[in-house]
Amino acid sequence: MLYFANRLSLGDGDAFDEANNPLLAHFEDSIDDETNVKEDELEVILEDPIQQSSEANTKASNASFSRNRPIKWPYQTLPKLPLNGVSVKPGDTVELKPDIEEQGDFLYIQHMIENVNTGDITLRGLRLRRTKFLGGVLDRKLNELCIVIQEDEDDDRDPFIQGAIEVSRHDIVRLRTLVFSEKEFPEDSWREFWALDAAKEDLRKVRDGARLVCRWVWIEKFENAARRRNLKANEGFLRRLESTECVDGKLHHSNLGKAYEPRGTRSSRSWHSTVRKAAHTYGTGFGGGGGDAEGARLAGAFVVYAWDHDPDSCESFRRAHPKAAVFQRDAASFALDPPNGESPRVTILHLSCPCDYFSPNHTCEGKNDDANTAIFMATTELLREARPIIHTQENTYGLFQRHPYYFNKLLSMITSVGYNVRWKVVNFCDYGLAANRQRLIIFASR
């Protein structure tokens, strides 16, 4: 299960006591004492001290459509709502109370709903969360947000409709300025108006009043509402907002949520002179005997190269794919020093990192544990050098179920070099394997 600060906890926590909070006192001291705060340290200084709950905040029943039902009598929508001397309306963004949404959450308002009989008012919209509370899958940048959606597979409505949340008007702190952007950090952010030196002098003012920017969408998929309440997801998707979804800093609802498709194909000539111009070129790391490469070949890709540190595996791969260049190398040396100085660029790069340490069957220390976890960290450099349009990985499901730190780090390494990423746990017996075998499949594209 992917953890976003305790498994994407949306639960109720202890009340926020600012007066008796020792970390807030430390925060004030940090502003006075800090003279060399780097950009990636700004969020660390402002870390909220509230304990993360492990329970879901969603109060839905077992009914698939218990969330966000159509607005009918005795409910009605409101065009605007007074808040602290200003009016809020659909399309605005408000900050939520920390004792209600304790992870730095915000609400992008889609509807304001009044119960005519009771006068109660709720706001329905998209949840946004500070990236520092996403368990490390995105860089911890001050006032950078991500849309967070929980989707039920047995609910056929659009995830941006069923995945909206509802909060009381009393849970709102203040109106905030939010820009939705497809641009790279730090464009469109408060940094265009504030010098970093000035920000160091008053980080709280920046956090509580400066412009917010949302560049990412995280969708976590569950089989049904019961699985969602228990936070047992089986699929997830982390992607950038696209230009069609962001118009002049506003969210373009008609295009929101459309499937991301990789851009057109391109060819690569690397280590082999017979690469066909129209073919997808395929490279594989930790290639083993060449099973994944054979699948790629059958699908029409041209297998350009493979590498593995084991000599027997390399020999088996050469026999299975005589036209491919095969190198007996480890991941780090291949990424930092490609053989013969040639470009490792391909359109598809597959990695099947050693899964021994992450397996649920790993019950005691192994002699290769340190090496297997260290080599896992070469993902960023491998992607940066190969620059594939499509990147795939296959590993044990224990990677995300039992090792959230490594799984989140993997997502961070993939997204940091410009990829959108989707993951899913699949049972290979559903695809023809003669035994139950649950595996984690990761698919990334740019």
| Class by SSE composition | alpha/beta
> What is the rounded Rg?
24 Å
Return the CATH topology of the largest domain: SH3 type barrels
Average pLDDT metric: 80
Annotation, overall tally of beta strands? 21
Contiguous uncertain segments of 5+ residues: 1-37, 44-64, 259-275
User: CATH homologous superfamily name of the largest domain?
Assistant: Bromo adjacent homology (BAH) domain
Write down the overall geometry. Answer: elongated
| Biggest sheet character | 17 strands, mixed
- Report how far the terminal alpha carbons are from each other: 25 Å
Query: How many structural units, i.e. domains?
Result: 2
Report the portion of residues in β strands.
Answer: 25-35%
Helix fraction, binned, reads: 10-25%
What would a concise description of this structure say?
The chain has 2 domains: 22-255, SH3 type barrels; 281-445, Rossmann fold, CATH 3.40.50. Helix content is 21%, strand content 27%.
SSE layout and pairing:
Layout: H1 22-33, H2 42-45, E1 75-77, E2 81-83, E3 86-88, E4 93-96, E5 105-115, E6 121-130, E7 144-152, H3 159-162, E8 165-168, E9 172-176, E10 178-180, H4 196-201, H5 203-209, E11 212-222, H6 225-229, E12 235-240, E13 246-247, E14 250-251, E15 281-285, H7 291-298, E16 302-308, H8 311-320, E17 325-328, H9 331-336, E18 348-351, H10 369-375, H11 379-386, E19 390-396, H12 398-401, H13 404-415, E20 420-427, E21 438-445
Parallel strand pairs: 7-11, 10-11, 15-16, 15-18, 16-17, 18-19
Antiparallel strand pairs: 1-5, 2-3, 4-5, 4-9, 5-6, 6-7, 6-8, 11-12, 12-20, 13-14, 19-21, 20-21
